[in-house]
Design brief:
about 240 residues, Aminopeptidase, 6 strands
Amino acid sequence: MKLIIIKKKWILMALLILIAIGVFASCFHHYRYRSITTLMPSLTKVIVIDPGHGGIDPGAVSKNGVMEKNINLAIAHHLREYLQQSGAVVIMTRTEDVGLYSDGGTIRQKKNEDLRKRKEIVKNSKADIFITIHLNSFQQTQYYGAQTFYPKDNPAGKPLAIKIQEAFIDALDKNNKRVALAKNDVYLIKGLDIPTVLVECGFLSNPQEEKLLQKSDYQKKVAWAIYIGIQNYFSYSP
């Protein structure tokens, strides 16, 4: 009986040690990125971050019901934190699960109003760059990987898109073969006169990436990659 009691005590002690290690690791991971930002070059820039969708517009929805809008917002909040710690002024088009539309009108009218108002925020911000955060989704499930896009009518966004894409590959998946591409069919990024990048942080339609994108640690990694891309861009284009 005494031997059994001793074994139970050792088992309990081992469990407590494992729990303590887990708590420490979680706290360390939470503050790791925050502490590193203090060592990065100062960013005396104005940056607009747009967490795509929100409110009545969920964006892409996975087969498991995971909504794009919530992940976009989480990544945007982490990115804002990193940028602000480096001295940047950050303007968010939304900071919670809302859309920028009035109460009346159809869903389509509300979505159009929302996009117009987001674009007005960018145009009135006098920002140095604009980043809009989204997730991808296809009918097929095999596609995966983060990718950046810049407006075809404003190639000033190309160098920024390239730097963020390079950071995605380095931080998230070194086997990611995607490259920064021009787009001309996205209303929000057309007709702007500042460097603009549409960031697709991954595919909700891919089962493995869907799981990753729901994890807070991975969302921080995505935000960190965007942050590093921005830092690298301004290092070459002060």
